[in-house]
Amino acid sequence: MIGSGSRLEVSDNSGAKIAQCITQSGRSWGIGDTITVAIKKAAAKGKVVAGSVQKAVIVETRKELQRRDGSVVRFHKNACVLVNQKGQPIGTRVLGFATHELRSRGMLKILSLAARVL
């Protein structure tokens, strides 16, 4: 689960590399939740610059995700995809994994851009 202050890798080609969760709430977030992040590290050429505040959707977490059929999905990193205010991805490719749980949250554009869907 992702809490306030957690660092995430950005899994798209928007130019951002590392983001930090800054949403001020007492709860933790999981796959498919939209959070507010501060961009800590970004590429020199890209759509996003370091120090900016963006919205992001969590696509991978280290904490395991239990599915209804009993299977468990776990990743080796925490990762997110940057989105605009309407929930559409900023980048044109999703480089990491995406899970089927995004479909129930209405994140179909992220699923269509992802190379690997679990």
UniProtKB/TrEMBL annotation:
<dbReference type="InterPro" id="IPR005745">
    <property type="entry name" value="Ribosomal_uL14_bac-type"/>
</dbReference>
<dbReference type="InterPro" id="IPR019972">
    <property type="entry name" value="Ribosomal_uL14_CS"/>
</dbReference>
<dbReference type="InterPro" id="IPR000218">
    <property type="entry name" value="Ribosomal_uL14"/>
</dbReference>
<dbReference type="InterPro" id="IPR036853">
    <property type="entry name" value="Ribosomal_uL14_sf"/>
</dbReference>
<dbReference type="GO" id="GO:0070180">
    <property type="term" value="F:large ribosomal subunit rRNA binding"/>
</dbReference>
<protein>
    <recommendedName>
        <fullName>Ribosomal protein L14</fullName>
    </recommendedName>
</protein>
<dbReference type="GO" id="GO:0005762">
    <property type="term" value="C:mitochondrial large ribosomal subunit"/>
</dbReference>
<keyword id="KW-0689">Ribosomal protein</keyword>
<dbReference type="GO" id="GO:0003735">
    <property type="term" value="F:structural constituent of ribosome"/>
</dbReference>
<dbReference type="GO" id="GO:0006412">
    <property type="term" value="P:translation"/>
</dbReference>
<keyword id="KW-0687">Ribonucleoprotein</keyword>
<dbReference type="Pfam" id="PF00238">
    <property type="entry name" value="Ribosomal_L14"/>
</dbReference>
<comment type="similarity">
    <text>Belongs to the universal ribosomal protein uL14 family.</text>
</comment>
